[in-house]
Amino acid sequence: MAIINGFVKTPKLYASNNRIKKIDINNKLFELKDVHSKDFVFFQIPLSANIHIQTVGIYKGTHYSDTCIPEIQIE
After folding, report:
1. What residues form DSSP beta bridges with 72?
2. In the predicted model, is pLDDT for residue 47 greater than 80?
3. Rounded to 5 degrees, what are φ and ψ at 3?
4. Which H or E element spans position 57?
5. What's the DSSP call for residue 60?
6. Exposed e or buried b for every residue in 36-53, given b needs 16+ CB within 10 A?
7. How would DSSP label each residue in 4-28?
8. Where does residue 17 rank: exposed (0-12), middle (13-18), buried (19+ CB within 10 A)?
9. What is the pLDDT of residue 46?
């Protein structure tokens, strides 16, 4: 499984919006670095028919309070 973290269109938009700091995927906790990148962040987890995803912590945006996940990839 992989995600793109934050509003990555531009560095300014990335900083303006919240990004995921900690994420729980199927009861496994992951911490993400606060780095502007259009690349996927990959998670090594066994996938099942049900996938539970929950943000546990965020990096605060400088202007907006929404948290952006532009893409989720499940293989």
Report:
1. 3
2. no
3. -135, 160
4. strand 53-59
5. P
6. eeeeebebeeeeeeeeee
7. E-S-TTSHHHHHHSBEEEEEEETTE
8. buried
9. 83
